[in-house]
Amino acid sequence: MIVPTQFNFIPPSPYQGLFAFGEKDAEFFFGREKFVESLVEVVHQQPLIMVIGSSGSGKSSAVFAGLIPHLRLEDTWLIESFRPSDKPFYQLASALVRQLDSEISETKKLIEAAELAEKIQEGKITLPQVLSPILQKHPNKNFLLVIDQFEEIYTLCQSKEIQKQFVDTFLEAVNKKTLTLVLTLRADFCDYVLSYLIFGNALQQNPPQFIVAMSREQLIAAIEKPAKKLKVQLQVHLTERILDDVGHEPGNLPLLEFALTELWKKQQNRELTHKAYDEIGGVKQALVKQAEDVYYKLSESEQQAAKHIFLSLIQLGEGTEATRRQVLKRDLISAQYPETLINQVVQQLADRKLIVTSDIAQKNLGIEHIAVIDMAHEALIRHWPLLRQWLDENQDWLRQLRKIETVAQEWYDRGKSNEYLLEGRRLDNVKDFCQEQKKRLTLSNLAEEFIQKSIQYRWVKRFQTSTWLTIPVLISYFLILPYLQQQGVTEAWNKIRTGNKEIREEIEYLTAGCWARQKLRWMPQYIAELFFGVCADFRGVDLSAANLMSVDLHSADLRSVKLRNANLRSANLTEADLSFTDLREADLSYANLRDAKLINTNLRSAKGMTATQLNQARLCYVSLPEKINVDPNHNCTKP
Predict the structure, then answer these.
(1) What is the predicted pLDDT for the residue at 428?
(2) DSSP class of residue 2?
(3) What is the rounded average pLDDT for all residues in the chain?
(4) Which of 170, 278, 298, 345 is deepest in the core (most CB within 10 A)?
(5) Of all helices (H) and strands (E), which one includes residue 186?
(6) Which residue stretches of 441-503 are H helix?
C-alpha cells in the first residue's frame, strides 16, 4: 500500500533533546503547570526568588518556557536574563545595556557594557542607579532579571572577592525593591550560597522555590501532549514503557527529552513506535548510543581531539558533582591539536547536538567575535561511561590544570602584572606538572604564556638580586662577557641550523638587543650588546614551522625570513621588520603587530589574524588573506 505523502512528512520536534525549553518553545512545555502557577504568584510577592533543583530537573525550562511567557501576557514587565559565566559583572552590564538603549549598534552596546561593568564592580555606580533611568522610561513596568545557572558564579568565577561583590551588588537592588530577581541554582550548590551570611539571611526573608521530581501524571503530559499538539500518536503502552525506563530521579529529564527527540525522527505515519524505541536504545541508552556512535566514527587523531575537547568542557566540583564550563575555541588549539583538526571535530560533535557552539563579542583593541564551546548538558558527564572513564583517569591532572588556568586568568585580568606571576616553589611545581602531563593534557595558550612569563621573570629577579655583583666581580664579568656572549650566540645558531622547531629561547636570545639597537642608536654597538644582548641578522634564514609561541621579537630584524607555517601565537612583534618575509600558513593569533613593518610581506593563507591587528601594523604591498578586509597599502607613505 502506498502511504499518502502528507503522512510521511515529519514536523519539527516539539521535544528539546539536551537543551532547556525557551520562550519560543512554551506551547510544547507541559507537566509543570502547577509549579509555574506558584512561581508566577511568588514573583508578585517577593523581590528575590531562587529556583533550586537537581541538575536536569527542569529549572531553566520552568522559568523560560513557563514563568516568563506568563509574565509577558501581563504586559507590565521588562525582562532580561543572562548566565554569570566567568565574568558576571560584564554579563550583568550587557543585560542592562540592552534596556538602557535598545537602538544602538551591537558594537556600541559591547563598549558600553564593558565600561558599565567596570563602574559597577568598582562601586562607582550602584545597580539601583543604573535601573533608575530604565524604570523612568517605562513608568508602569517592573524590572525582572533572571540569572540562569547561578552556580557558575562558583564554578567559573574563581575569585571569592568577585563572588561576594556580585552578590552584594544585586542584593542591594533587591533590598531597595528596584527589581525582581529570579535565580536558578543546582541543589548541590546550596552550601555555597548559605556560607555567605548576608545571602543566607536574604533567602530566609525570601524563601526559595524547590522544583521536585515530576509525578507519573506530569511525565505523561510531558510525553504525550507535545506530540498530540502536532497530531502525532504514541503506540499503545509505549508511554508506560518509557515511564518505567525514566524512573523517579529528577535528573533523568534530559535523558527523557533526548530519547523522545531521537524517537521523533523515526516516526512512521505520524506514529511513535515500539520498534523505533528499541532502535534508539530506550531512555537510558539513547544518549550513550548517540555519543558513542559519533565518537567511534572518528579517526584516531579525531578521537584524541574529541577526548581533549570534552575534558576541557568539564569543571570539577569541590564537594559537588562536576559541571560543564564554557571554553573559547581558540584555547582548544595547540601544537598537538591544530586548528583544522579542532574545527573538524567540533563541527561533527555540534552536528549531533553533543556540544553547542556560539559567538561572543569581546572588546579587545577593537571588537572581536570569538567562538565559544559548551557541552550540551551535564547529563553527558553523568551518563556516558566513556566520558566518566576519561574523567576518573584524569581527575587529579584536571584539578591541577584548572588551578593553573585560574591563576593565569587572574594574571590576565590584572593587566598581566608581574605581581601575579608564579614564583619559587609554586613555579617549580607547575613546571614539573607540565613536564609530567605533556602527553596527557594540553594547557591553554593563556596558561602557557603565563608560565613562560613566570620563568622569564624569575631569571630577571635572580639577576637583579644576586649578591655576587661586587665591583671586582663586576669588572671581571664585563671582561669575560663578550666571550660568553659569543659562545651563547654560536650555540643558539647551531641549534637553529639543525632544524629543531623548539627554538623559542634561542630566538629570544639572538634578538634580545634589537630594541636597544633601534632606540639607542647613539650608543656604540658593542656597548649596547654588552648591556642588552645581541641583535642577530636573520635575513634569509629558514624558520619554517618553528614553534615561536609567545616569543618576544620586539624590534627584531626578520627581513626575508622564511616563517611559513610557523607558530607565532601571542608573539610580540612590536616594531619588528617583517619586510619580504614569507608568513604563509603561519599562526599569528593574538600576535602583537603594533608598528611592525610589513612591506612586500606574504600573509596569504596566514591564520588567526584580525583586522585590528593589521590596522596597527605598517602595511605596504602586502599579500593578505581574502577574508581580511584591510587596505594592504594603508601605510605606504608612513616613514
Answers:
(1) 81
(2) P
(3) 84
(4) 345
(5) strand 180-186
(6) 445-465, 471-497
